[in-house]
């Protein structure tokens, strides 16, 4: 590379996302476990929030991670292992809304199982930037059409005919079993993702908007009734208190 010739570059987009716990641990240079920060002589305590591994607190001190002094060390991330699950404050509303659509008896979302499967498939497609394919996906489409090779039991042949050849199927929406729907969703997603393997110029804003629409749709489906569509159990309400606690209300005597 000839550094005498400037290379033009253009930022096409910026995306923000949350770190996974594994990514946080990889970024961290030190686990913080000591609630005490300074000792009696005002020196940093090992494992505390001022641990020297995170960067020196005085300009003349050397950082134990990068060995630079306090004026040049950029500072380093540490992490705290929480002893129990804690809701991320940024995801508080999403967590409460999701819990309001959950069944506390069988552990599934309260919506019809097939609806949840379609929403999951849509999100999977949107994760790959396939907005049109996600919008086109509904149970009516999957019920009307199926690949001609679907009954042959040969996955390679199934794949070959899926791309171009479809024929009307007599299955109605009610007759489509969960297993059949799962199979068709899997093939639909796999085919769409394979066809668009090189896609990279989609608009993230469109994807985010559709992701929000799918989540809103499935949340509304889950909250249509207090009765779970999977196990039939009647669920109680969820109450969020001061953005700190989530309470499950008890069944009343009349119920
Ligand atoms: Zn450093
Ligand atoms: Zn249930």
UniProtKB/TrEMBL annotation:
It comes from the Eukaryota. Coiled coil: none annotated. This is DNA-directed RNA polymerase. Residues 9-241 form the RNA polymerase Rpb1 domain. InterPro entries: DNA-dir_RpoC_beta_prime (IPR045867), RNA_pol_Rpb1_1 (IPR007080), RNA_pol_Rpb1_clamp_domain (IPR044893). The keyword Transmembrane does not apply. Keywords: DNA-directed RNA polymerase, Nucleotidyltransferase, Transcription, Transferase. One of its GO terms (biological process) is DNA-templated transcription. Its EC number is 2.7.7.6. Residues 156-172 have a biased composition (Acidic residues). GO terms for molecular function: DNA binding; DNA-directed RNA polymerase activity. GO terms for cellular component: RNA polymerase I complex. The keyword Cytoplasm does not apply. Belongs to the RNA polymerase beta' chain family. Residues 146-174 are annotated as: Disordered. It holds the Pfam family RNA_pol_Rpb1_1.
